[in-house]
Amino acid sequence: MTASPAEQPPPEAGLPQAAGRQEGLDGVRALAALMVLVFHVAMETGAALAPGAVGALLARGEMGVPLFFALSGFLLYRPWARSALDGTRGPAVRRYLWRRGLRVLPAYWIVAVTAMLLWSRDQITSLPAWTEVLTLTFVYDPDPWWVGTGPVGLGQMWSLCVEVGFYLALPLLSALLARGAARTGRDPGARARRLLAGLAALAGVAVLATVVQFYPEPRPQMHAWPPRTLGMFAVGMALAVLAEWAWREAGPDGPVRRVCRTLPRSAALCWLTAGAVYLAAATPATGPRFVGVDGFWVALVDMATSMLFAFFVIAPVALLPGPAAAAPAGAGWLAALLRHPVAVFLGRVSYGVFLWQFVVLYLWRDFTGQEVFTGSFWLDVVPVTAGTVLLAAVTHRWVEEPVRRWGTADRHRPVPDPTGRADA
Which pTM value belongs to this model? Predict the structure, then answer.
């Protein structure tokens, strides 16, 4: 027996959240930050380098980085995707860059100065060293004064350098994508397909950058340059296009709307698939357990597994309906998990968790007198995690939040969404 027209759900029922803070993504951000922290503790203690399955699994904790990149692609590109589909003007670039700078730099500068004063005192009077550290450009130094992925205490910041490169490039990339989409006419579906094709081309640029990294001779430093990571950002950007396209698709049950409803309903299958990808990435197919990759084809496999892992973790969360709507059947457990107050708290302080982890790790190991690649993973991970979360909470409370409030005085201005409603 079919429902009467009055009983039919509205066409927008179950569509992705259109505006406002997506708390589920805070939970994914917390997961990514903790994965990276566990990876660094495991590397420092040597647990990730030990033979066997446990060491291999710990060594792939770095898969949290693709999650960060894809989240940035989704959240930052979505307003530009919306304007590209509607043929309207995109976000103000100056305001966008101002907010990005306020979000990233103040807390980072505190950590960077702390690490430099603790472990790079021989560079205290070096203006070039301070300049490249404070501007997050040290990964481009052709003759670095540091060893590894960055200065001592700041090794994880190579990925933040990549993020900043993406922030700066996003307005231009968005303009190029929108220009290509506009040539298809006013149909949102045609524009969305052109945007997705453009994002596939961005992933192709990442492949070309990998070619340049290895031929005619290896250039290991390019592993930490933005072009190599464009495919991971494109994953999130593609999800942003799908989320906006679903609101504009004709008909109550078109293919895009079905995809956007099916992925959250299949959350368990998506995360199981992500787990399978993680296991595959823990094999030698993706290269050595330490930093970098040792060949072109291995690099491509590593890139593919990173993109797939990010997609299957983030897609069912990014496409969830808003918190006011009931979670789709099959996604209730995921919504409850990622919207739990603990997950939300860890998500909101996750930037500080990312920033402080090496400082806390090295201070703890100095205090306990441990040498590199020695020690107990479990005896280190608990105090390091606790100390990192504590400092992250302090930084969030006394630096990030005051700066955000100061820099976004218009934060109560209603934000339009595709439904015609406005959320404060």
Answer: 0.92
